[in-house]
Input
Amino acid sequence: MADSWIEIPSDSDFSLANIPFGVFRPRGKKLDFRLGTRVGDWVLDLAALEREGYLGGLNLPSSTLSAESLNSFIALGKGITKKVRTRLQELLSRENSSESGLEKDLQTQKKAFFKADEVEMKVPVEVGDYTDFYSSKEHATNVGSLFRDPKNALLPNWKHLPVAYHGRSSSLIVSEDSVYRPWGQYKNKDSDLPVFGPSRQIDFELETAFIIGKETQRGYPVPVDEAEDYIFGMVLLNDWSARDIQAWEYVPLGPFLGKNFASSVSPWVITLEALSPFQTEAPPQDPPILDYLKEKQRYSYDISLQIELKPEGDEALEISKTKFQNLYWTQAQQLAHHTINGCNIRVGDLYASGTISGSSRDSFGSLLELCWKGTRPIRWPSGEERCFLEDGDRVIMRGWGEKDRSRVGFGELSGTILPSPVPSFRG
Amino acid sequence: MADSWIEIPSDSDFSLANIPFGVFRPRGKKLDFRLGTRVGDWVLDLAALEREGYLGGLNLPSSTLSAESLNSFIALGKGITKKVRTRLQELLSRENSSESGLEKDLQTQKKAFFKADEVEMKVPVEVGDYTDFYSSKEHATNVGSLFRDPKNALLPNWKHLPVAYHGRSSSLIVSEDSVYRPWGQYKNKDSDLPVFGPSRQIDFELETAFIIGKETQRGYPVPVDEAEDYIFGMVLLNDWSARDIQAWEYVPLGPFLGKNFASSVSPWVITLEALSPFQTEAPPQDPPILDYLKEKQRYSYDISLQIELKPEGDEALEISKTKFQNLYWTQAQQLAHHTINGCNIRVGDLYASGTISGSSRDSFGSLLELCWKGTRPIRWPSGEERCFLEDGDRVIMRGWGEKDRSRVGFGELSGTILPSPVPSFRG
Output
C-alpha cells in the first residue's frame, strides 16, 4: 500500500490500507452526525468531501453520506462501497497527490478534516437484530468446566453447529460510553432464595462482530460459500456480563438480564476488503460437519486481540492477548447456519463471535476465565486485585492485523463501569 | 358504549368500544401504507379523516398518520393517542351523529372507508427488540415434564422471576403471511449424530404481546406500578416453533433457529384503554416475590383465547380454549423485571407472554402439549390426524373480552404452513 501525504504514525491502526467507515460529529457542538473515514489521527467527513466534488462519478446519493448511520451507504452494495474506499485511497496517496488535488486544497481540508480526539462517534449502524455466537472452543470448554462438568465441558451439539442466541439491540453502545452496574436477582451460595442488589460479578467479554451488507428474503438461506458477499465489515464488541444475575436466570431459555444492560462496539467498521490480506487458515473441524456448513475455501483472519484493564487512579495492565483465528466456527459458517432455517437478515444486523479465548490462561477473553470464577485474582504492582470489575474500572480492547509492514486495525474499544444512576439504588 | 351509525355485527371484535390502531393499504394497488382503525367490517383511513378535517385540534402531525408504522403516532404519547380514540368514537357514535357530520358526508366516507376484506395489513409497528417471556405456569410445567423431570418440572428460578429470552425482529410477520417449513439439524432417537432436513415437528404457540409506547434511558428501570404508562396496547402472537430443531440446539443458550424463522402478530393493536373494562384478578403468587416485582394493585385482563386448526381441504377444528388471566406473571411485572438491570426500551418494542396454557388438556397453547409430545393425536371427523403441523395447515387464533354486551377483540391471527421456497429443498 502506497504512502499517504497525510502523516500516519507507523503503529496506527488506520493506515491507508484500512479506510474504515463510521459515523461522527464534531465534539460538543450538537451538530448533525455524518459519515466519515479515519486515516492516522484524522477523521475525514465524507459528506463534505462529496460536496466539494471529490467523490464524483460514484453514484452516491448525497443523503447517504449525511445520515445518522451507515445503513443506507452499506445498502448501496459492495459494487459502490468498494469504489468509495478505493477513491479515498487515491485521494490520500502520495503518488496520486498532484492528480487528486486534495493535498493542496486547504479550504476543503478545513471543512472535511477533523482531529480524531475532537469528534464524537456513534454506534455506526442501526442494528435491526443482534445475535451472539459461542464459537470459541476454548471459551465454551472453560465455561462448561466452570459451571457444569470438566469431563463433559462441551455439550453434544457444540461441534455440530455454531451455537448462538439473540441479544438486545436497544442497549448497544459505542466505545467510551459508560456502563451502569446492573441491579438484579442472584442467589448466594448459602441460600435457596434469591436476593436483590447490585451485581457483584460484572465481567467483560472480548468479541468481534460482523455487519450485514445485503438483505435476504424470508425462506432463503445464505449458502456458506457466498456468505462473505453478505458481510460488509467487522467491529470489536464487548459483551458486558453480570455473572451472578446470569447464573440464576439462564435456565432454560438462555442469558437475558445478565447481558442486555449494555454491549459496546468499536466505532469504525473495517471492511472485508481491508481485512482480506490477513486471511489465514481456520482450525480443522472434527467430527465432520453437515454439508451446508462445509466450505470450499475455508479460512479465517489473522487478527491479534488484546485486553487492558485500568482501575480508577491506577495503571492499565495488559491482562490478555489472543487471536481471532482461534475461533472454531468461521463467520461464513455462522451466517450459513443462522439462515439455514429461512431466517431473513437485514442490512446493519450485527453478528458477534462470542468470547474469544486462546488455550493458555493469558489468552482468555473474560474475567470469569482469567480469574477462574473468582479464585485467581489479577494483581497490580500497586497491590490492587480484581476478580470482577469495580466501579471506575476501564476496559480497553484492541484488535489489528499486521503483514509486510502494513497494519489494519479497529482502534480502541473502551468502556468504564459506573454505579447505577438511580438515586435510590445509590443509597 | 353508545351505538354507532355504522352497522357493527353484534359478535364483532371491533365494536365502538374498541377502536384499535393498525397500518393498511387498499389491497393489490401498491399504494402507500397509512394508519387506520377498524369498526365492524370497515377499515377507516386516519390520514384521510385528518385531511378532511375530522381530526382537527388534536395536535397531530399529519406525517404520523401517513407513515408505514404506528411508531411515530404512538410516540406522541397517551395524552394524544387517547384523544384520537375518543374523537373516533364521537365521530362514529349514533348520538353524536348530527354534530360530527361524518354520517352524512358521503364524499369523505368514499375516501376514508374501506371494506376490511379489501385491504392489506402490515406488522403494525417497527419492532426494535422482540422479547418472549415464559409466564404461564401450566405451560412451563408441561414443557418441564415433557423434556426434563415431571417431579421437578418448574426450575428453581421460575416462581421468582418472569423468565424470558430475546427473539428475532426481522422475521416478525403479520396475520395471513405464510410460514415456510424450516430446514435444519435435528437428532433422531436412534442416533448420536444430527441429520439435516425439513423440520418434522412444526408447532404453533398461542401468545399475546404488548407494545411499548414510551421509551426509557439506559440505566433507569420502569417501576412495576408505573409499567402500564409505558404500554400502548396488545396484539395476539403466534410463536411458530420447530420442536426437533429446538430440542437439539437449545443448550446452553436457549431457543434460536427453532423459533426465529417466523413469528406472526395480529394486525390491530388494541389499546390498554379499550381493554381496561376487562381488568380482573391475577393469580396469587407463592412463594413471596422480591419487592421490585410487588404490585400495589395487581390485576390481569379477562381475555378469552381460542385456537382453530384447519388442514388443507378439511374443516377447521377448535382445538383449544384458554384465558389470558391464567398467566402467573403480569405484563407490569414482565416490564419491571426486563428493565430492572437498566435495559432501555424503545417505542414499538414487542414483549410476548410466552405460550398461554390452562390446566386442562383442551386449554393448552401448543401442539407439543395438546398432543403430549406426539403421543395423543388430534383427530378430525374425516379421519385426518395431527401431532405436528403439515404443509397446508392453517392455524387461526382469536382473542376477545366480553362484558355487559360490549365486546372488544383482536380479530383473527392466522397463518399457513408452506414448504420451503428453495427449489433444491423442495426436491
User: Anything to note?
Assistant: The first strand of chain B starts at residue 22 and ends at 26. Chain B has twelve helices and 26 strands. Residues 341 and 416 of chain B are 39 Å apart (CA to CA). The mean pLDDT of chain B is 97.
